[in-house]
User: What shape does this take?
Amino acid sequence: MPSQGEAIIKCKCPKCREGDMFETSMFRNYFNVKMPKECPKCGQTYRPEPGFFFGAMYVSYGFSVATMITVGVILYNFFGDPDMWVYMTTVIATVAILWPIQYRLSRSIFFNVFGGVDYDPSVMKSSKG
Assistant: This one.
């Protein structure tokens, strides 16, 4: 039985923790962030209500702020406080490169934590009949 944290990191369905929340693996197609309408394993809908994932923007914002602070601290401490354009270029490039990861994780965190779906390993699409 995978834990909720493992399901979040691997972007799995919060109900069965087996079905993928995204159509392709991040490592197979980095920029494909399409979600199916429902879990391929248990049938849990991935669209609980219109506009549900707008809330995931707050999680993504947190990731972006953490990225900016981390890059700023690294540049300041290890590269001798470079010019402002170096900070801006490095932060923008880092956020752009990490965007697909942040997008997937923010949706996974938001749906697993605030989606109102409880883990139920007994509910599987094939057993529904």
